[in-house]
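Appendix C: a fully annotated inverse folding record. The material below is reproduced so that readers can follow the format used throughout the book. The structure is listed first as tokens, followed by the designed sequence.
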């Protein structure tokens, strides 16, 4: 998930999403919905995820942009950054490299809200998507190693993309704190402690910019959080998410294996269903 410096200062680390029309009408009408509609031209959660998974498969084993390599993740964790727009965590959550206890609880609840478990397939939380996001935030990508962050910074236009003077990890950390502060005021509780229904309502309001966050734009924070959630759900398992390649199995994606020469004769005129293979399975 590297970012290149473009003509205009900004963040181009992720390719923009071009979702299915149903998703464009709102997350609560797509991923967060656990019920499929019939006869209304809408697609179900499984079909929706297939669209994203197929798009990712066409671009490589990691959808919606590349990712840092395993070596880069380890190296970046030991590298500091000069940008400090949000408070550093006091104690990391269990098994996390970047998030503290409160932040990891938020991310686990958020990804579980965006892609919940249902009859169509597993949820993002059980597939380890929070771990994927944590590793990305601890990496050079999260620290903005390849971002131009010297300014000047302006509001910009939609075509110019990301224009904030914050790295991805700073944006995520500040956004989590902002949402928890807003929820504490409105519900007298943390986001992670809310019911599934209330969490879905908060996410829908963030997407629709009905909630104004104290330090970061709600739409920008939500967009990055959703992007990372989808990435972690469909990424190669070596990056921390998509545990046991369950998302690949759900959509019928074979993974990283591109060698089928030995299967031509045995399966001539016969259906061949391969078990998904990740990068580490081929090493």
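Designed amino acids, in order:
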């Amino acid at each position: 998930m590297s970012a290149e410096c473009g003509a205009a200062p900004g963040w181009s680390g992720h390719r923009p999403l071009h979702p299915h029309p149903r998703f464009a009408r709102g997350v609560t009408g797509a991923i967060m919905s656990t019920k499929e509609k019939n006869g209304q031209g809408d697609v179900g959660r499984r079909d929706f995820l297939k669209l994203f998974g197929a798009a990712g498969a066409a671009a490589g084993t990691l959808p919606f942009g590349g990712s840092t390599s395993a070596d880069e993740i380890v190296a970046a964790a030991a590298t500091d950054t000069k940008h400090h727009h949000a408070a550093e965590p006091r104690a990391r959550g269990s098994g996390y490299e970047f998030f503290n206890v409160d932040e990891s609880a938020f991310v686990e609840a958020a990804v579980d809200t965006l892609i919940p478990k249902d009859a169509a397939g597993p949820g993002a939380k059980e597939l380890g998507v929070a771990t994927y996001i944590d590793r990305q935030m601890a990496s050079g990508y999260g620290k903005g190693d390849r971002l131009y962050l010297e300014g000047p910074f302006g509001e910009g236009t939609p075509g110019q993309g990301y224009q904030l003077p914050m790295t991805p990890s700073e944006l995520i950390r500040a956004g989590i704190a902002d949402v928890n502060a807003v929820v504490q005021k409105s519900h007298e509780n943390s986001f992670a402690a809310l019911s599934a229904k209330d969490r879905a309502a908060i996410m829908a309001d963030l997407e629709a910019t009905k909630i104004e966050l104290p330090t970061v734009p709600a739409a920008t924070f939500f967009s990055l959080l959703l992007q990372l959630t989808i990435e972690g759900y469909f990424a190669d398992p070596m990056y921390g998410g998509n545990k046991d390649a369950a998302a690949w199995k759900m959509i019928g994606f074979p993974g990283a294996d591109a060698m089928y020469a030995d299967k031509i004769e045995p399966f001539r005129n016969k259906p061949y269903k391969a078990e998904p293979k990740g990068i580490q399975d081929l090493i």
